[in-house]
Structures are given as C-alpha cells and as structure tokens.
Amino acid sequence: MSTTTIRSYDGDAATRTTEETTSTGTTENATQSCPECGGSLAQHEARGETACVDCGLVVSEDDIDHGPEWRAFDSAQRDQKSRVGAPTTNMMHDKGLSTNIGWQDKDANGNSLSSRQRQKMQRLRTWNERFRTQNSKERNLKQALAEIERMGSALGQPDDVRETASVIYRRALSADLLPGRSIEGVAT
Fold first, then answer.
1. Which burial class, exposed, middle or buried, applies to 173 when counting CB atoms under 10 A from its CB (0-12, 13-18, 19+)?
2. What does the pLDDT average to over 135-140?
C-alpha cells in the first residue's frame, strides 16, 4: 500500500493544498510519465484527475466518467435503472429499431382510457403498423422473416441459425434474386 501526495494549486502560492491518499483511491498509470519530472502518474477517481506522484503536477482533470450517472445497490435496482434497449436483430425487417405503440389501453399514469381514446389508440396502432413497412421490399422482407421464424421454431433451430437465414434472405433481396419466386419457397 503506497501513499500518493497530490498537490493542488488555485493560482497563487497562498492557496496551496496537499492531500495524501492511499493506493485504494488511486490507480497507478505505469505506461505514462510526468512531462515535468518524468515520474509516474496516478489517477484519482474521486476527483477525476491524473497527477504526478513525485511533483504533484495535475496532467489531466475533469476526466470523463463512462459509468452510469445513477447508483444501484442490488441487481433489481440496476435492472430497473438501466436504459439499454433490446439489441438489434436481423430477424425483424427494421432490425428492431422502430418505435411501437404499446397494446395496453392505459395512459402514462396507468389509468384506463375512455372508449373514444381506445378507438383513437387502435387507429394509431394500425397506422403505426402500416408505416413500419414503407415499400413492397420491406413488406416482402417482413413476411419472409416471419416465415423463417415460424419454420425455425417448428424445426427447433437455435436463434443464430435463424439470424443467419435472415441475413441470407436479406442479401438475396438486395441482389434482386427473388422476383418470380414465392416467399415461402425461398424463406424455407
């Protein structure tokens, strides 16, 4: 356990502060050396800065913390606070990146919708589904991927085999090899 001294200067010599930390709060950075004295550098995570161990020169400050901006104390909180969506997949015609209107007839507060609002939401869902496929190639791809999923599931194929089949179908569609052939015949 080594002790690291980090000296901070706020512009003039009168406001000099010195702080000593143990190696539990810092990590040694052996690949870099101080530009002033050639000493080794240490990163101080709490302050977000990299400083020389020997002379105290702050080499970089305000380092970017790539971790989440929230804290979680157990896995349930971590899962609840995570904002990571589903991964992209070739098994959907839009690779799973489009926005869907939920099937529940509830508002943002969890209250049930009125009859008029339910009709409006159903109409919006219908139009949302129509606009997800913008042209005939996307409609063809959507139908073929559904067939690949159905056949793969019926045959007990793993997901990676279905993904590979969908990539092959996408390549055939982009190369215009499919006109004149049935979707079911090519997809299976």
1. middle
2. 87
